[in-house]
Each structure stands twice: as C-alpha cells, then as structure tokens.
Amino acid sequence: MNYRNAEASDLERLFELVKKFAASFVTDKNCFVNSFEALLRNRDAKVIVAHDNEPIIGYLLGFRHHTFYANGMVGWVEEIMVEEQYRRSGIGAGLMRRFEEWIRKCNGRPTGLATRRAAPFYTAIGYEDSAVFFRKVLDYN
Question: What is the domain-level CATH number for residue 62?
Fold first, then answer.
C-alpha cells in the first residue's frame, strides 16, 4: 500500500469517499470543495491518502494544535475512512502511523479522536478510551 499527502487532483475521488463516510450530515459538493482547498493550504491540517497505485481507497484528515495541558502540540484525527472491501488489511493502521509520524516531527505528544463505530480498531493499534465526547451542532439560520 502507498500513502501520500492529498493533492488537488484527488478532489473527485475523495468526495466519493467522504460521501460514504458521512453518517450525521449530507455532504454538499460546494462545501466539500471549499473545505478541501482550504485544508490543502492549511499547515496545521493533514490529509493523507492510501492507494494501491490508483484509485485512492482510504484517507485520513487530522490536525495539529497547541495546548496548555500537554505542554505544546497535540494531534487530533477528525476523519479516517477506508473502502469497506479493504478494511482489516492494515490500511487504516498505516494511515494512523503516517499521521502519528507527522505529529512526532513537530514534537507533538498525545493524539486523539472521537469514534462511535470503530473502538476495537483503535484499541488494537494502541489507543485507549480516555474521555467522553460532547457536541452541539450550531444552527446558522
């Protein structure tokens, strides 16, 4: 499996994967395009893709940011998705390793994420249950 940073030419394929990933929201193409372009420019965002030559079969979107509690930089995985027929083959773990390497390079410490559906995957690759996650979807109307 090959891993690399996402490129502008990945937009259409990533949009197809994101539509499969989104469980709580309907993915809007215009919003996706705006977000994708902004994320590619953001030094504190990382979009990693997994591919076996082509096409892309998985991706990870994560961020790094400074904190007080950890004495500096931490990582946060926002999204990770692997096409269903390729799951349980190490691709998700490979995406996570690449993200962790990026966080280590900036002297980051903890890496976290929220999940409802994949706890066994994360515990298998060394993550532990650490907190309760709350959210509030804001209405802009």
Answer: 3.40.630.30
